[in-house]
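Quick start: what a row looks like.
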Amino acid sequence: MSETASISTGIAQRYASAVYDIAQEGKSVKAIEGDLDALQSALDDSDDFRNLIHSPVYTRDEQGNAIAAIATKMKLSPTMANTLALMAQKRRLFVLPQLVKSLRATIADAKGEITAEVTSAKALTKAQSDKLAKSLNASTGKTVSLHTTVDESLIGGLIVKVGSKMIDTSIRSKLNSLQNVMKEVG
C-alpha cells in the first residue's frame, strides 16, 4: 500500500471509530448505516460530489457550506452531518470514501457480520445472490452481506473478496492463465 493511501486509511479509521462510538452512545447506529448508503450512492453517482471532496480549489468555507447543504438535502443524521462539517473544516473530506468503508466494516464487525465484495460479468439475480450469501455464510461462520458490482470485461464468472481472501473464477482470469501457459510452451 502506498504511503498516501496508508495515511488516508489511518485518518478515516480514526473518524470511523469516533463516529461509531458517538452513534453507539446515542443509539443511532441504524441511522448512520442509512447515512453510509446515501453517501456511497453520492460517491458512486456524482462527479460533482467527488470533485468537491477531492479538489484543493475549494476553500474550507466553500466545502463546509456545500457539505452542510448536501447533508441537509440528503437528510443525514446530526452525527454524520457534524462529522462531515468537521472534516471540511480540517480539510479531510478527501478521506470520505475510506471513512464510508471503515465505518461499514466497524459496524459489521460489531454485529458479527462480514461484507463480501462480489464482481460479476452481469448483474446477479436475487436467487444467485442468496445462494452465494448462504455459501459464504457456511464457509466463514459469519453473516455475510454482499456488495455487488458489474464488470462486463470478466466475460463470465465471479470475483469474490471476503476479508483478505479472493476467489477469482472469471473467464477473463482463466483466459489470461491459459495465455501464460501457452507462452511458456512456445
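That is the whole record. The CA atoms of residues 176 and 182 lie 10 Å apart. The mean pLDDT is 92.
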